[in-house]
Give the backbone structure.
Amino acid sequence: MAVASVRERLGANRVRPARLRIGWVAGGVAFLIGAVALGVFIGPVGISPVQALRRLAGLLPFVDDTSNLSAQHEAILVQLRLPRVVLAAMVGGTLAISGAAYQGAFRNPMADPYLLGAAAGAGLGATIVITYTSAGFGSDLMPIAAFVGALAAVALAYAIGRAGGVGRTVTSLILAGIAITSFLTAIQTYVQQRQSQTLREVYGWILGRLTTAGWSDVVLALPYMAVGIAVILSHRRLLDVLSVGDEEATSVGIRAARVRLIVVVAASLATAAAVAVSGLIGFVGLIVPHVVRLVAGSSYRVVLPLSLAFGGAFLILCDLLGRTLISPAELPIGVVTAFFGAPFFALVLRTSRKTL
Amino acid sequence: MRRSLSIVLLVFVAAACGDARPAGTPALSTGSFPATIQASSGSVTIPARPARIVSLSPTSTEILFAIGAGAQVIAVDDQSTYPPTAPKTTLSGFEPNIEAIASYRPDLVVFSNKAIAEKLTALSIPGLYHDAAATLDDTYRQVNELGTATGHVGDAAKLVSSMRKEIGEIAAAVKENEGEPAYYHELDSTYFSVTSKTFIGSVYALLGLRNIADAADAQGTGYPQLSAEYIIQANPALIFLADTKCCGQSATTVAKRAGWNQIDAVKGGHVIALDDDIASRWGPRIVDFLRTVSDALNALPSAA
């Protein structure tokens, strides 16, 4: 297997542009900004966009706040909506880019950030805190428990999958992830059923929550997400090579297993932080990268940054629907992402001529 | 040897249980058996005064003990936390296991989950179905039915009249508040609430309070979920926390929530921690609940 033939295969495989075009970057950023604006301006309580803009401008240095919002509206805008929109963007972007990274690392289009048991581990951690501590849902302990649970589950799956043998790492890792997920979900369900008083809180967490998001959640999750995302982005070229095959990657001097480990650890760290502050939000990590592939091309140099932008915008819009459709009540965000995400994905799948 | 010893022990325990029954003969009417009750779920006949009652509903347990039928109760479900002397077991009222219930050889089962009604009939165990009350009148009816079913007709009538009297007095003593103070009743930390259509909501209404959740219940479930934005905008004068036990909420945790320090109730220190159990049941202790609410209402500053 010569280097030249790998290059040839890489080249032949790429009829789509491998470079990220400036138009797509602008589109992604514009879409994200538009989503943020909608998310901040629309809500159960009517606040005029002009007033809101003036208030937000006042947050910038050297700009005076010229709005005359009431104390209540001020609190709603700055302490509720804004952190919520920011957190939705962070969580959506993180889940989407982590999903893309998992798909690349495992060369499996069905992979999502929960593939190695992160969701089940976080679910178990959160359920234990909700059920067995008095503080419950709003507890400071919960994000930590979810975070630790997610990382522990992935580590366990990795340890089991690696023991399966060198030659079949990818498949055995995925199977180990499935086994860990089933096992932890079983324990989580048991703990949850034991305490009927806390059932609704546990379900509320499982279906995802941005309901109680505040700036503290943003601050809590940001460092882990930033590190994870930076590492994933720096591996975008290596993921492109990995997409051809482990042997081919090895022949051009890339240690496939090592790249996979780094990418999976980074994506799991970011995902664990996202899950810790928002509960289990499904579908974003699976469909956003695929939609990006279908419309913009499948090189990881394109898919990773665009997934970040479109994932963030997608979750802001889903959250907007969740909190306005049956206002003043709220739909769980996980329900919205799947309900609107699935048909949208089907539409893109039908109309696109590109292959995944 | 060991076997005969256990038989002796068993007889002894049985005798002790028999002695535990109240010795004094109540002057109040005990009713007569067989007793027939026209319950909301249909007619129920109880052949003799029950001595082995199983209660699968925390509210029914509270009522049974309040009307002096506690000594006849041999097992209560895992959620029956009051009174502390109630014989709490691992029986579940939410997911009742008919075999586990039958193993107590009950002569009356009071339950709130309809699923076991037919199974009890199949085993010829008299069952009294007591659904969640929608109004105080439902509570009074359930008290009277349990009085008839257990041979405590007079005690039940006495409890109902004292509840009526106390509730009337509390409602009458509430000071005049201009323009109905608004309140928010919190069920859990995801902001599920109750409307005035629910039992607990109808009790608040007795004191002339306005419920902020009423306008938010589009589906008419009685238990809408509110958003923080909506609650802050509604700016209630009083916040009642029925999630102190389940979810560890308190005036302190509420004050820490983003933006909530703009709410009058939080600013003025009118966030009241309730006992989750009392606030979610419809038994005799609803009088205590009403007193807590009226105290909170009377502590509000008078409208200028």
Q: What stands out?
A: Residues 228 and 269 of chain A are 6 Å apart (CA to CA). Chain A has a mean pLDDT of 84.
